[in-house]
Amino acid sequence: MNDSPDTRPAIEFRNVSYRIDGDADRELLHHLTLDVQRGETLVLLGRSGSGKTTTLKLINRLLVPSEGELRVEARSTSDWDVIRLRRMIGYVIQEVGLFPHFTVERNIGLVPKIENWPVNRINERVQELMKLVGLDPETASRYPRELSGGQRQRVGVARALAADPPILLMDEPFGALDPITRAELQHEFLDLQKRLLKTVVFVTHDLREALLLGTRIALMEAGHLITVQTPEEFLTSTEPLAIAYRSAFETTFDIPRGRS
Amino acid sequence: MNLWQFMLQNHTEVLELTLEHLWLVGISSLFAVLIGIPLGILITRWPALNKPILGSANIIQTIPSLALFGFLLPAPWIGARADRLAILALTLYALLPLIRNTYAGIKGVDRSVVEAGRGMGMTNRQLLFQVELPLALGVIIAGVRVATVISVGLATIAAAIGAGGLGEYIFRGLAMVNNQVILAGAIPAAAMALLADVSLGWLEKRLSPR
Q1: Residues of chain A contacting residue B110, judged by C-beta atoms under 8 Å apart
Q2: At residue B210, does pLDDT exceed 70?
Q3: What is the pTM (predicted TM-score) of this model?
Q4: Is residue A169's pLDDT more than 70?
Q5: What residues of chain B have any CB closer than 8 angstroms to a CB in chain A?
Q6: Which stretches within chain B are classed as H helix?
Q7: Whole-angstrom Cα distance, residue A50 to residue A28?
Q8: DSSP letter string over A107-153?
């Protein structure tokens, strides 16, 4: 095996555990070992409290492992300058976390701004990104509260991509959207990812989203990693939890009997 | 002689006392802002300091104002001049609303917004000045407003230790059992309090996000 940084996984979890305040009774993540390959979209699938978001926040060091080692770009997150580490990792969260007092333009240009890019380069980049995520240029001077949920989420994605980070963390980015907008954004994400080939870690509890977007699916439950499979493998998996997920998402449009 | 005639006749004195009053309130409010806001920020960063600092500010508030003026009288330099003393006492009283509102304002900023900022690699300083303070500004100004309105009222008592201000008329009127003289101090003071309330209220509304 070649150990040069280019062929190594972008993110490597080695026996990583996380406990709140190091308290063994409050363990949110249990001995996780997992690689995220360069350019893949790894979906963390699981229900609330399964440790998906914890896993994500460990990557950009919003949380610090209680045990084990986590390497990003072949370097342990504890050796990274935390600000540098975070600026090379785009971060999109469900509540979007857009700054309500910043216009769309300023929100998207935030990371280039704190990276001290020259103003005209920031403006160019913002325009480019707005086009990329399908935002009307007219929205540039609006505030987040004046946007629809779908538009806000697009701004969130554009903001995360602004400084062209190699890694993207997405925490249920489409969870709060209506089904039609969600489907729209999911397909746009696929198109975008085909072109950009970022290393993406994507958190969701929606099996259909996981199957659609993931190159691999890491199934989690109560802080444990149950299995990592491709979507095709997942569909035929005999793993009990995978079966449970499949049956929960089986669609029939029958209206339950006993209702009139 | 009615009130207006009295105020007209003594207009230079009324003006002088009003300006003195404004000076006491303005300077003490300024000091309180300069001390209270940093302290409020400090206790959001160091939760261990929360109780001692808010507790002390709370205790100061419970000391009757006349007594506080008295306590500070023997203090060196400060006690040497009545206006210094009054400004110190007024500053101390104004601290609590400022510390409390700064703290509450910053703590009230949407957690997901702060986390997004942190996750994108903003430094603590950038988070504070670009996100937390701007979003807390409305609440902080509300604290300034409360503190200033309280100060305008409290500053009338400063006349008891000879610091001047509109309280002079109130105490003089009380001694003379003359309501007009009392009102000549009380009405401008009340107007000042109202004006501070309205203008800072307007500012608060303007600077509150959304």
Answers
A1: 95, 97, 100
A2: no
A3: 0.84
A4: yes
A5: 110, 112-113, 115-123, 126, 130-131, 134-135, 209-210
A6: 3-9, 11-45, 50-62, 65-72, 82-107, 111-119, 124-126, 133-155, 167-176, 179-207
A7: 8
A8: HHTHHHHHTT--HHHHHHHHHHHHHHTT--GGGGGS-GGGS-HHHHH
Tell me which DSSP letter residue A175 carries.
Answer: T
Q: At which residue do the structure tokens 């000549």 appear? A: B184
- State pLDDT tens for residues B47-86: 999 999 999 999 988 888 888 888 888 888 887 788 888 9
**How close does chain A come to B58, measured CA to CA in Å?**
32
Evaluate whether ipTM surpasses 0.90: no
Residues A76 and A57: their CA atoms lie apart, in Å, by: 15
Burial of residue B5 (CB within 10 Å: 0-12, 13-18, 19+) is exposed
- Is B113 within 8 Å of A97 when comparing Cβ atoms? yes
Reported as a single tens digit per residue, the pLDDT across A104-142 is 999 999 999 999 999 999 999 999 999 888 899 999 999
Q: Is A75 exposed, middle or buried (0-12, 13-18, 19+ CB in 10 A)?
A: exposed
Tokens of A32: 């996780």
- Say if strands A67-72 and A11-19 run parallel, antiparallel, or are unpaired: antiparallel
Chain-chain contact of B131 with A91 (C-beta, under 8 angstroms): no
Contacts of A90 in chain B (CB under 8 A): 120
Alpha carbon distance A170, A53 (integer Å): 9
User: Percentage of chain B with pLDDT > 70?
Assistant: 99
